[in-house]
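User: I'm new to structure prediction. If I give you an amino acid sequence, what do you actually give back? Let's try with this one:
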Amino acid sequence: MKTRLNLLRNRETLLGITILVLLVVISLLSPSFMTYTNIVNLLKSFTVLGIFSLGVILVIISGGVDVSFTAIAQVVQYAVVYLFLNNMQGNVFLAFVLAIIMGTLMGLFNGYLIHRYKMPAIIITIATQNLFYGLMYVITKGQLIYVIPEYFWKISNTMLFKQVAPNGAVSGLSLTTVIWFALALVVALLLKFTVLGRSIYMMGGNPVAAQRIGVNSRNTTLFVYGSMGAIAGIGGIVHVSIVQTVIPNSIVGQELQVIAAVILGGASITGGKGSVLGTLLGVLLFAILSNSLTLLQISSYWYNVFTGFIILLSVFLNAMQEIQQQKQKIRVNVEAAS
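Assistant: Good question. You get back a string of structure tokens that encode the predicted 3D arrangement of the chain. For your 338 residues, that looks like this:
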């Protein structure tokens, strides 16, 4: 009985059950929901949000908050595409390398300010979001780039496990989704099996104790925010490949959805808790809700209502879990003392 209760308290288990119930209900209401074409398109449409969430989970576990990653992605995608169109020849590999380098530098700038001046991360990243985004708009004057190199298209248009419908339409798992899942695996392995991953958890859970046992807070902070910047850069290139144009304000504003998905996946906003699996399930739940509203012809405004409700519910569940953990610690201490 206790094992079952522990499973139900596990956020990943609860999310998995919720998703299964939603899949059954929505499939009954809309038979086209569980088709192969709809599923791969659903995953593709939430790939960018999913990639961003992998950087955000690192930041939140470390005890920080970053809202500048969308601005980093926006700057990176505009700069890389502009360079390739006007000053240099390139390819997909070089595009990702440049994006990672540029994103990492901006992320390291965030990490340096946060560690050096001991200011709340959310304040620093709000400032740098406006700095990065504002400078890009001043320099570019908000001009759109309608034509992008053809090799950007191939990232999105390359498909695995293709299926051909009776009408001749081809559907398959987009390479962009494969990139998302591959990154998720890398981040999961980093957090679970490396000393650095354990350091990130310890720094978020108890920074004073982490420093006492030898965790280098400066290097860990720089790594976390540098990684967030690199992942944001990758997300920016993937976004270009999907929309096949560069719109200066097309990414900034998605921070709430990403952070909500990560918190929904079980990450504690105070740090020290979270998992890649939970994050993936959180993103998947958001994707299912968004897709179901479209299929059921429900106003998209309800998506914002669901987003707000999910954030409140996630914060409530996290608070309840932490209260239960504190009660268990007190009970253990009392028993040990007696």
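You can read the tokens as a compact description of the fold. Here is one thing that stands out. Confidence is low (pLDDT under 50) at residues 1-8.
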